[in-house]
Amino acid sequence: MRASLIGSFIFLGSTLTLSLLAACGDTAGNPILAASPGEDAAQGGASPAQDGGSTGDGKSGDDGGDAAPNRDPALAVASNDGVHLWKHAAALASDTAPDATLGASGLSDGASSLAGANGHLWVGRAAGELGVLRFDDAASLTSASTPSATLPTTAAATSLAIDGGLLWANLGGTIAMFADATTAPAASFVHPFEQIMGNAYDPVSDRLFGGQISGAGVLAWNQAHTKTGPSNDDFVVADGGHAYWTMQIAQNRLYAAGAHSSTESGVAIWPNASGISGPAAPITLTDGYDRGKFISHLIVRDDVLAVAARDQDVIYVYEHASAITANRAADFTLTHPSLVRPNRLAIDANARLYAIDDDGIVVFANVSSTPAFVTEIKSGVGQPSDIALIE
């Protein structure tokens, strides 16, 4: 799942291609995918974490290729008092304090979002001067680490993603595209109603998708990487009855979660995401979802789809996501007394699922086969807002 969340990050995934980066004309001295210390930039910095798409919910990666997955990732959590880091996420078996907390450059006042790739970690500041900070050599960060670059934003980033060699920042209703790590956005993707809350970029078709939640529906922008300045959508994929807060592309499928209509909520799936060029009806999953209850996040990795039904205190897990062709119930329903309003999700290469909720991180093992609760981490977490795995 690429997810976009990682030395590469998972969150939700897209193919990080140097060819597209070159096509973007990114000749600036500080490209988004600059090589980390000891890393060959020619490799593109692609993450092995995700399986085929992007997410506008803070995660990114690629379709893996031949790279072996990282079985010992670090865990990053954005919170109201900084970014907390656990060096060995796969070993977490009990409530454990973080190994480090990033608080420099205003992060002690709060972090809103995370993304990473090629050994870099991007962090959205939640207060003060706002902006997005870049930290290098992410796997080796300590509490004393400081950012190497700052990208200016006009609002706090509610989600970040590295897709197609570009940084995509959702600024609470508009989407900003950065081609360079130190300059203002190259383009912004807008709608008169604003409130574009979910987004996902497909580098194959060079198309950006956005979920507008107050009447415009699912929007699309063609030749997205060539846009400059404010850009309105080129066409509508689904009408205004569809209001989706979270999106990801995986294995050439566009996944979105939220409201299908005034009477149904759940997950929408469009097969052949790279071929979408006009209005298209999705496959819809509705079993188990209560209309009017907020669905905060979805993530796909290794053909497993996980959906955080926040207001139901539930995470739904679907096996063989690429084979879903019609409405069906989830294979697993994850609940636990410790799981209260799950907000954001990440899945590692060991099939461990990490969910931030109102007051901590809840960990489940074996989500692809026999899910089991492992622990809840509350020590040093604060009030979490986003999560990423550094792989």
Largest sheet, spatial ordering of strands: 8-9-10-11-15
Biggest sheet architecture: 5 strands, mixed
CATH class (first level) name: Mainly Beta
Classification by helices and strands? mainly beta
- What would the principal axes of the Cα set say about the shape? globular
The stretches of 5 or more residues where confidence is low (pLDDT under 50) are: 1-28, 35-53, 60-65
Secondary-structure element pattern, one letter each: HEEEEEEEEEEEEEEEEEEEEEEEEEEEEE
Count of discrete domains? 1
List keywords for this structure.
single chain; 391 residues; mainly beta; Methylamine Dehydrogenase, Chain H; five-stranded mixed sheet; four-stranded antiparallel sheet; 29 strands; 2% helix; 38% strand; disordered N terminus
What does this structure look like?
It is built from 1 helix and 29 strands. The chain has 391 residues and is mostly beta strands. It has one domain (18-390): 7 Propeller (Methylamine Dehydrogenase, Chain H). A hairpin with a 4-residue loop joins β12 (196-202) and β13. The protein is globular, with a radius of gyration of 18 Å. The chain starts with 17 loop residues before the first helix and ends with a strand. 59% of the residues are buried. Residues 1-28, 35-53 and 60-65 have low confidence and may be disordered.
